[in-house]
Amino acid sequence: MSAQTQAPPKRQALKRLQCPNCGSPINQFTPDAQTVICPSCGSHVALGMEEAEILSKGRKLPAPEVPIEIGKLFTLSGTSYFVLGRVMYEGWDDEDRWRWNEWLLGTQDGRLLWMSYDENGFTVFKKMRFKQPFNPQADSALPIGEGRNVAVHERYPARVLGAEGELTMRVKAGERLYVAEAFGHGKRYSIQQTDQELEVHEGDPLEETAVAQAFNDPAWVERIKKRTASRGFWRSVGVACIWFALLGLVGVGLASQAGETVSTQQVTISRANPVAQIPIDFPAANRPAEITVSAMASIPENTTIDVDTSIISPDNVEDFLFTLELWHETGTDDEGFWREQRTTSSNMFVPHQAGAHTLEVELGAEGTLDSMQINVRVERNRMNSFWLIAYSVCAGIAGIVLIFVASPGLRKSTGSALASDD
User: Fold this and answer.
1) Full-prediction pTM beyond 0.85?
2) Residues near 43 by beta carbon (within 8 Å), at least 6 away in sequence
3) Which pick of 116, 137, 224, 252 has the fewest CB atoms within 10 Å?
4) What is the pLDDT of residue 412?
């Protein structure tokens, strides 16, 4: 389809009014209009009285994300529609604010529908009656008749940021409302509560491509194709990142199983004999090794033992490595009695020389136990999994972010064209 295709026709105005605020002309397209919005100053003007009256002063709305203009005619699924007006809303919760647009549509047979565009895409809503009493701020399910219910998934306060065109209801900029959203049986349900009324609308989702084709807008269709391709690409990259993260975790698991046990000894350290020495041979330098100490018997309640570890290299230089802690603690709190203990502790180091070394384990001064029989295990040629863990975490986060960004239905759409204030 050529980008030079003729634009969709516009409906002829029935009446031309003058804005009471700025004097600019305002077109009225339907005799049922109760509110028209000045295209110049954004004032909301009430009709139906002897003279037009300003309901609220506003400002001209920014253009919507999609090229839908007031007065346009279009045909969708064999039904002809014309665009009467648009209302822009803002909703919020404790963490975020978002905006969406709703267009009032008229049909040749006199029906009035609403078409919404938000993070879920397009939906055409028609008004329905409540089947039984419903509280949008508390009830978890909306009755839709014939014994069926749909779950309420979201509820939040909102306000009218502004409007344009004409509307068959009284609408003021800044008017507050409460919104509940429900989904089920292939339908969307929007419940809106104001100080004056409570309404529910049932909607059918629409593909944006179908809407763009209905408006005979090839440039819009092309933008959708490019956006879909871009989202598909980044979603694929995100999935690949998740797979790489999982492979990294597999590598972490394999690294944890690597290593060669070169010594396992049981020693007793005490205040009288605080130091035990264990000979260790490292054929290659700069290969990670791990030292693990384990209590050979239960640790008495509310006691601790610190085991200081040092290594003596072949050149007789002694280097302190680290302190390994074992402990057993108990106590009570608001939830009752609790018990925590550590009977095994380990850490890694890197020998910088090859050859025969001497490992020293010493009873630390900070512990409360005077003696303890421990098992000391030394593994050499260990794999340091730190970088694999960091890689897996970064790849996983990148994948989740890319999938989130490429999936507009997972997030609220925000805007900054109008100021947000309460």
Assistant:
1) no
2) 19, 20, 21, 22, 37, 54, 56, 57, 58
3) 137
4) 52
